[in-house]
Amino acid sequence: MAKVVVDVPTMQTNQPYDYAIPAPLADNVVPGVRVVVGFGKGDREVMGVVVDTTDQQDFDGKLKPIMRVLDDHPILDKELLALSRWMADDTFAFWITCLQAMLPSALHADTKWLANGAKTVVNRGRVATEDFIVPLLKHDEYLTLVDQQRTNAKRRITLLQALAQWSTDGAEPRLLSVAGPDSFDRTTVKAGQSQGWLRIEPREFYRRPYANLDAQARTHALTPTAQQQRALDALLPAIDGHKDQTFLLEGVTGSGKTEVYLQAIAATLAQGRNALMLIPEIALTPQMVRNVKGRFGADVAVLHSALSDGERFDEWRRIERGEARVVVGARSAAFAPLTNIGLFIMDEEHETSYKQDDSPRYHARDVLQWRGAYHHAPVLLGSATPSLESRARAAKGVYTHLLMPERANQKPLPPVQIVDMRAAQLDSVSGDFSNELLNALQERLDRGEQSVLMLNRRGFSSFVMCRECGYVAKCPNCDISLTLHMDSHTLRCHYCGHEEPVPTVCPSCGSKRIRYYGTGTEKVEQSLHKLLPNARVLRMDVDTTRRKGGHAKILKAFGQHEADILLGTQMIAKGLDFPDVTLVGVINADTALGLPDFRASERTFQLLTQVSGRAGRADKAGAVVVQTYNPDHYAIQLAQHHDYEHFFVTEMGIRHQSGYPPYYFTFKLTVSHPEDRQAAKAIYHLADELKHSLSDQAVMLGPTRGAIARLKRRYYYQIVIKYKNEPQLHATLERLLTETQVGSRNGFQVAFDREPLSFV
Ligand code: ADP
Ligand code: ZN
Ligand code: ZN
């Protein structure tokens, strides 16, 4: 008998179903393989994953049998099966959704694909093959044949000579289509085949992303600086001693966190164990992949969403087969089928991309910690600006705190100049640039140095601000910025539901220069061309990087000095390391502050610190110019002084006072329905149930309309629960999830989000 989690996501099916194992399939039905089973009335064929098997027989013949087995070996091992169950419980997601989230999309069976007659062992269908040449004759026989050819049959002779060579050295078959001296034209090879000289054999091969990086010179370990050595001295005993300890490596930008990661990985490999490293978005940080590849070469596998499905599948199989010892990847690489793991690393641990905003709403940090406990291996979190949650855990001693307060090259962090845009002289073209920033850019141009310019597009047009005094409309009850709702032309609070009309005159200073805030990169690029006609500008944003490899191309061009200014959105704030960048300009530091989000200050501080860290990383000193309408805001002031510690203390005080994380745990429930009234009714019903079931320990915010009240023809409502200790929470939510699933047939959708990144 097999326990099968079927691909029918409803709460009733969150437990596995029992199926009988027909005798002919007895050897193939093992935990971790995908199967096809009949489900429900009419025995609809659905995909399922076997999570357990028992010897128990189906004596009374009541169980439905497994119809087909889709894999010739388990695609999820015992660890990952257990992890999927834990994740389903922890995130209130369907078990099958969790299982699928762990697999590369090439292995997601959909119903269409099943209907198209999927056969046993479908894996093979997704594998790339290439034609290989296999010699069939002996060395001497080939030489004889060479002599028999007419002298002008050059191609045949070349082929025969090659075959003679290959037949002696017992080498692997040769790829037919390879370029260079080993390449033969197909006609000649086909002729050889019909002569019986060779066989053409399709063989599996790996689509290798970054294969060209393999050829790069191997880099050697650097001699650690004193602060790197201190971090390593703390880490290595945990690696050697198989301790599932979590470390927070807080190191300023340029402090050399990468070298610590690499040496820790090297130590892990020396122990005979493997290492898994997560980075936020690989496309944005190609340098990290290059660093890891440079150190560990072909042992490295890379997993991320910018790869084609085929490439990702192939990298995944290399890991699964034990052919890779180091895995580098974005969020979903947390599920890499790596075994025998001795170290987990998460670079830039504060990044929001580590949390999936779709079901299953997991945070990769939690997944790494679960796996760390499973493997008895340490988890190393690194950042220049740790999330408040992690930093608070370090303060409590839950995490071991490692500090690297200085840059590896002993250079100071760049000075940050704050430009008060309310008082500044602005350019006449667009009004986006202050004289200070323009002059700084011009200086770099004159000296032949490079600049990075960031335009913060977050919260584009989603709030209103006075350009005269910097006033941003805030909720009277919550001290949170109000969100602009264009459809109804109102400002609303997403925390308490407060609503007011959009002002036409600034309530603070009476000015009429009230704006929906937001500037596009394209527009800024155009004004740059007018303001600095000699500057060569490269633009990096969603538009210019849509195509595969778009990021890499732009970054490469910038690295080769094909431009003087790299203009981009937040995506340029991450780990770029260009030695000739001596100026970082931030066009608008405020947009994140205007967001109706209790993490707005944290995000602003992180972003400014990260982007400032791009300046002056090598010999030339760097500088940063930040334009803002809120020069007195503590997030901006403290970012100016690179003062994370002070920011942490200040922000924790505010979170404590307002009762926000990390002082409280939070949970967000969202309900949507095509009809507004139905959605509203459902959320108020949920609110009633929660009030009934939860103790007065838990605080409920809402119900309120969703940030986007209507999306894709559905109306959204939400509730946020804050709690410190609420023993009833899990059982209550579980029950509500089951109940609401019954309603899902009537067009309801319910989303449960543990520790949402924001309340909006
Ligand atoms: P972070 O990730 O902490 O911002 P990086 O790892 O990018 O910093 O390191 C910043 C720079 O310092 C890089 O150019 C790196 O090569 C250099 N570096 C790091 N460690 C050392 C070392 N031990 N000796 C010499 N240079 C180092
Ligand atoms: Zn409010
Ligand atoms: Zn004003």
TrEMBL record:
Zn(2+) 1 binds at residues 466, 469, 506, 509. GO terms for biological process: DNA recombination; DNA replication initiation; DNA replication, synthesis of primer; double-strand break repair. Zn(2+) 2 binds at residues 475, 478, 493, 496. It is an enzyme of class 5 (isomerase). PANTHER family: PRIMOSOMAL PROTEIN N. Component of the replication restart primosome. Belongs to the helicase family. PriA subfamily. Its cofactor is Zn(2+). This is Replication restart protein PriA. GO terms for molecular function: 3'-5' DNA helicase activity; ATP binding; ATP hydrolysis activity; DNA binding; zinc ion binding. InterPro entries: DEAD/DEAH_box_helicase_dom, Helicase_ATP-bd, Helicase_C-like, P-loop_NTPase, PriA, PriA_3primeBD, PriA_3primeBD_sf, PriA_C. SUPFAM superfamilies: P-loop containing nucleoside triphosphate hydrolases.
